[in-house]
Design brief:
- InterPro entries: Leucine_aapep/pepB (IPR011356), Macro_dom-like (IPR043472), Peptidase_M17_C (IPR000819), Peptidase_M17_N_1 (IPR048816).
- Belongs to the peptidase M17 family.
- Residues 305-312 form the Cytosol aminopeptidase domain.
- The chain is elongated and about 80 Å long.
- The protein is an alpha/beta fold.
- It has 16 helices and 18 strands.
- The chain has two domains: 18-133, Leucine Aminopeptidase, subunit E, domain 1 (3-Layer(aba) Sandwich), CATH 3.40.220.10; 141-455, Aminopeptidase, CATH 3.40.630.10.
- The strands form four sheets. An eight-stranded mixed sheet has the order 6-7-9-8-12-16-13-14, sandwiched between helices. Strands 2-3-1-4-5 form a five-stranded mixed sheet. A three-stranded mixed sheet has the order 10-11-15.
């Protein structure tokens, strides 16, 4: 197995490091008793109250002798620690003084230290943390998240279908997985709706199939929307709406991140990851409104809007995955602006007809500080997809319930009774917050991985 994604913000295990004390308001008195009298007096004089994100440097003979982080009253999350790489002195090294909250601290620290630096160096060297004992899983998660962030943040001229496919190949090679890339005539025949979406681009579409695990393990299929740039097609987006469209491959980046974490944790499943790597461009051969497209499932789709292309990509991927009869099928996509209007940027919309699967995903998300919110697959809206010339339209003529309509469209390509969930995600941080710098974000990565782990817990797996 090759090296994990290189993480910023980590110090060597044997490096001399200053103590970092983490304390709630209720624990402040006990901390004062443990500190040197001068440090305790300074903490009192500075008015430190243990509030969330409150940081104090403690003076000592050599300058800085340590630091104290306030955790507030709520249970610590990774975001409790995410501001420290930028708040503490640049390049300084730290260790957790009390050893508590190791996983949250390691994950939050690494995510807070992350910056996309391919073309511009970071404004400052982050403070570094000596990896605490018990944080191995958190570091695996941080590596998968940061790799996904890098994929999403890469400019679209450097992250086209070929580059996204190569990223999947590299991931497969790193973990002994098998990777197949389908293109050309084989793609046009096997994934006709996806091919139609990408036919106007000078960068031809590709479908990636990554497979890992042993034949006897239960099959988990993950499908990711990999639209490397979305102009909207002939239903052209306004310029302002294109400014973040390099993130329209965020679903693909997230499922590749889930795959990386599943493989690193060696969960007892067999993986099938399908990525539809495509660009929705404008040219004389672009697919048009009112075109009728054939899909892999045999269903026909009238194109009501060329900017609803992601569901056409996923339709073929879901049909392909369903042919393998997986025990679990999950797709991730930056599918609709309607989901953001309903839930804002931080909460992916979760759709599934399976209450137990919804509970597993929501519970795993809450436990990992990676939440989602379930929205209904309301059958009453299903006729809104009717078409007079094809089996269905790809959009509804009504300007309402757009996220639900997108999910209902996808449901038509999943066999009844198959355990399936659809995650409609934003995959982006609009502004910087502790642990979440502005830019690409792997929303739902930890939730999906945690749900997979809980659903297949107790099954013997590789390396277990």
């Amino acid at each position: 197995m090759t090296q994990a994604f290189p993480l910023d913000g980590l110090a060597a295990p044997d490096e001399a490091a200053l103590p970092l004390h983490c304390v709630t308001p209720k624990g402040l008195e006990a901390l004062r008793a443990r500190l040197a009298p001068e440090a305790a007096a300074f903490l009192d004089a500075s008015g430190f109250a243990g509030l969330a994100q409150e940081v104090r440097l403690l003076p000592g003979p050599g300058g800085v002798a340590g630091a104290v982080l306030g955790l507030g009253e709520a249970a610590p999350t990774p975001w409790s620690f995410g501001g420290l790489p930028q708040a503490l002195p640049a390049g300084s090294a730290w260790r957790l003084a009390e050893g508590a909250h190791a996983a949250e601290a390691a994950l939050g620290w690494c995510l807070g230290a992350y910056r996309y630096t391919r073309f511009k160096p970071a404004a400052r060297i982050p403070a570094r943390l000596v990896p605490p004992a018990g944080a191995e899983r958190a570091l695996h998660a941080a590596a998968a998240i940061c790799r996904a962030r890098d994929l999403i943040n890469t400019p679209p001229n450097l992250m086209g279908p070929a580059e996204l496919a190569q990223a999947a190949r590299d991931l497969a090679a790193a973990h002994g997985a098998r990777c197949t890339v389908i293109e050309g005539a084989a793609l046009e025949e096997g994934f006709p709706a996806l091919a139609a979406v990408g036919q106007a681009s000078a960068r031809p579409p590709r479908v990636v199939l990554l497979e890992w695990g042993t034949p006897e393990a239960p099959l988990v299929a993950l499908c990711g929307k990999g639209v490397c740039f979305d102009t909207g097609g002939l239903d052209l987006k306004p310029p302002s709406s294109m400014l973040r469209m390099k993130k329209d491959m965020g679903g693909a980046a997230i499922v590749l991140g889930v795959a990386e974490l599943v493989m690193r944790l060696r969960l007892p499943v067999r993986l099938l990851v399908l990525v539809g790597a495509v660009e929705n461009a404008v040219a004389g051969n672009a697919f048009r409104p009112l075109d009728v497209l054939r899909t892999r499932a045999g269903l026909t789709v009238e194109v009501g809007n060329t900017d609803a292309e992601g569901r056409l990509v996923l339709a073929d991927l879901l049909a392909c995955a369903a042919e393998r009869e997986p025990a679990l099928l999950i797709d991730c996509a930056t599918l609709t602006g309607a989901a953001r209007a309903a839930l804002g940027p931080d909460l992916p919309a979760l759709f599934t007809p399976d209450d137990a699967l919804a509970a597993a995903l929501l519970s795993a998300g809450e436990a990992a500080s990676d939440p989602a919110w379930r929205l209904p697959l309301h059958n009453g809206y299903d006729p809104w997809l009717d078409s007079t010339v094809a089996d269905m339209n790809n959009v509804s003529p009504r300007p309402m319930a757009g996220a639900i309509i997108g999910a209902l469209f996808l449901r038509r390509f999943v066999p009844a009774g198959m355990r399936w969930a659809h995650v409609d995600t934003y995959a982006w941080n609009d502004h910087a917050r502790p642990g979440r710098p502005e830019g690409g974000e792997a929303q739902a990565l930890r939730a999906v991985t945690g749900a997979i782990e809980s659903l297949f817990d107790g099954i013997p797996g590789p390396g277990r």
